[in-house]
Write a structure and sequence with these properties.
four-stranded antiparallel sheet, binds zinc ion, 4 strands
Length: 117
């Protein structure tokens, strides 16, 4: 597999990001790095591989004992992470609406699940 050189390694060094996709080892491209949040040395960064299209959410926190980093595999786009990060989550009304949806006798989804059980 060809290893395309990165157009700009400085963003990876500045953000302390890994430069290669852990799945296919393709070099990440700077244009696929989205900084979602940044406070001093702590940040939340979304990176998508141009080759295999996998995405990782990098969380970097500076604490009293040093820099802590964590990468989480995600199928969310950067825009979805932004939207969901501050959403109110699932409310009781949403759950009740879903319950009603599932138990509606005219609902084919409900029939599909009941047939499966
Ligand atoms: Zn990849």
């Amino acid at each position: 597999m060809e290893k395309k050189p990165t157009s700009s390694s400085s963003i990876f060094e500045r953000l302390r990001l890994m430069k290669k996709c852990p799945f296919c080892e393709y070099n990440y491209e700077a244009k696929k790095v989205v900084v979602l949040e940044e406070y001093e040395e702590s940040r939340l960064v979304h990176v998508t591989c141009s080759d295999c299209n996998s995405s990782i959410l990098h969380i970097m926190l500076v604490t009293q004992v040093g820099l802590n980093t964590m990468g989480i595999i995600t199928d969310l786009s950067a825009e979805e992470v932004k939207r969901l990060r501050y959403s109110s989550g699932i409310t009781e009304d949403i759950l009740l609406d879903f319950h009603k949806f599932l138990y509606n006798s005219n609902n084919s989804f409900s029939k599909l699940i009941l047939d499966y059980i």
